[in-house]
Amino acid sequence: MSTARDDAFRLGGVAVPYHWFAVGATAALIASYMRIFYYITNVVGGTDDLLLFVAVALVGATILARKLPAWTAFVLGGVLLGGGLLSYYSTVPQANLSQTGRIIADNVALLTGLSILQMRAVGTWALGVAPATAFVPWYLVFRRRYVLAAASGGAALGFFVLTSDAGSFVTLTGMLGILGIIAFGTMARYGGSVAQVDVLAVALVAVVLLSTTVSVVPGGSVSPILPSGGGGGSGGGGGLISNERHVAVQGSIELSPKVQYTVTANRWAYWRVAAYDRYTGMNWMRTDGSRPYERQSPPPGGSYEVRQTFTVKVNRVDAMPAAWKPIRVVGNQKENVRIGSAGSFAPKSALTKGQTYSVVSRVPAKNPSQLRDAGTDYPSTVERRYTRLPSNTPDRLERRTDQITADADNPYEKTVAIERWLEENKRYSLDVQKPSGNVADSFVFEMEKGYCVYFATSMAAMLRTQDIPARFVTGYTPGQRVGDDKWVVRGLDAHAWVEVYFPDVGWVQFDPTPSGPRSDAEQSVVEEARANNVSNVDAGGSENGTWTPETTTTTTTTESTTDESETTSEVRDGPRPDRGQRGNGGIAPETSAGTTNTSAVTTAAGGGIPIQMPSTEQLVYGGLLTAGLLLAARRTGALRSAYRAAWVRWQPRDDPETDVERAFGRLEYHLSRKHRERRPGETPREYIDALSHVGVDERARRVGSLYERARYAGTVTSEQADEAVSLVNDIVRGSRRRNASGQ
Prior knowledge:
Layout (H helix, E strand, L loop, with lengths): L7 E4 L2 E4 H27 L2 H18 L6 H19 L10 H11 L11 H21 L3 H18 L4 H23 L8 H13 L34 E3 L10 E7 L5 E6 L1 E2 L3 E3 L5 E2 L10 E10 L3 E2 L8 E5 L6 E4 L3 E4 L3 E2 L3 E9 L3 H5 L7 H7 L8 H10 L6 H15 L1 E2 L10 H7 L3 E2 L1 H14 L4 E7 L3 E4 L2 E5 L3 E9 L3 E5 L4 H17 L22 E2 L14 E2 L30 E2 L6 E2 L4 H21 L1 H12 L6 H19 L9 H7 L7 H16 L4 H24 L2
Helix pairs in contact: 1-5, 1-6, 1-7, 2-5, 3-5, 5-6, 6-7, 7-8, 8-16, 12-14, 13-14, 18-20, 18-21, 19-20, 20-21
């Protein structure tokens, strides 16, 4: 045990200076946000470079701290940070140092809740910023500038808190590091004792509680580099049918049967909402920004026209579904449109119930012979962006995909082989447990069933192992056809599929989700809702069943920029007719109409009660919180007081002599709390007699007499022990009643 003013903690005869505890706390703080940098580079590449750069920064800080004053840390850190940011902005399209306003807007957008992973060149950013954030606090702690070390590392952690990238566990770890730096640094500088470390317990509890409330900061600022807009409530489907910037893979879900849109169109199609390019292994993000509305160019290859008009049937939506590829908006909604999410249209302000919008789209022709001959001459930007997988993606996913596509000679045949394998080898089900690791790998090797998100995620990842550009797409299947040119789209039609890029053709749709079981599941939900008289389940005559068209021959047209010239050739009319006539969801929409969205749960056997199982992080978090509360209670005396309050009111039983001695101990403690403690040298008899003037009666004297007999004569009976315990119980309880009544 150290002395009252020591700068070291003595353990087993070895003195460990508190300075080294402060260094350890600094390491914990740096490690907390380096975990985020590591995650970023794992997703986009560059993990080995990150570890090398950070190691060099830490070694350099350790060496330079012995030779240079503290203020140079900020100079050197500024140089590192400035150089890193310069390298980042030089890689971002339409961003340079002369565009000060754009750069400021970019950083403001980050600080209002936009994830770092939504930055296009985030790998370059991470490699540029990480060394400076490691160098400065490490340098300062070795210069024994503890507060400055905590402040500089805390600023880096706070940045990730504001961007929403620091989860609660990372935030907690970092804040504990800050607390440790200040506490141990103070003891190292001014001396202290091990007992003083208990003071940290109170701060620990505060840190834990604070870290649960400062993990996400809402925002939505527009940035020229980061994606903008979107978010908010949508017309059913959570992130899948809104313009949210990410899609999180969930576990078991429920479907909503409520109508979201009615559609009038000259052809049926999948109604696309958003496309996502960045796969993290656990979810999907999009890194594209939005831009002002303008007429878009048609796909480079053959295409056919789809003219569609949507009518909103829910209170509020922030999405504008349309067949891919939307070219132009017709009508008065043109001023309320922006272009985002890889060419999708989105409203500037939310659409409300009853509003309509019309879109003209050009759908790429899915001509097998043309797709087989498309080749692999991908644009470099497409190849870089849409073939990337996280660095820790298991190698077995690529090996399995190699086996599945062994007989394929070109990207189209590989795409079809993967699509067919998923359809034939995985079952459709909404009742799944979310995997803890890489979603695609888990679905391919460990899961027997899943819904559209799992099928589409796996297909996109498998294609990327073959260096075939693919992206994850969300929206709606066509819905229920109620007329020659009319469809009813419900929340349960929310869906996910895949788009694959082919040179000179563009992005072409593929859907690996089995259509039969999917449609059966949807129909049963609709029928059950009708039987239960759920509102807003039908519209436009959908209660009369699905309208079936006659078989027709369709044509492919190529559109010029003036919509005037066309060439024709026979093609299939959109997606396969066996897909999505009633649509599919598999996405649990939550709308203003009151549908539900549930996460994976475990059901108690026989009880039907959903039980949410705590994660490992939650267990660790709860353990830390419990330990902190107990230590805080010990430090403040609350734990001892609680123990004493229970002890004085309840007595375990033993042999008669021990029982009497314990009873007198309870009596003495009670009298000391109510009147005064027994003075040194004062016998039990003298103590009780001295308190007789304040109301201590014969019961206390009797207990004192029995105590003297047990202590000095060693002869008391079980009946006398029972009497002593009962008398003390009466005294304690009687006092409590008098206190409650104010006497």
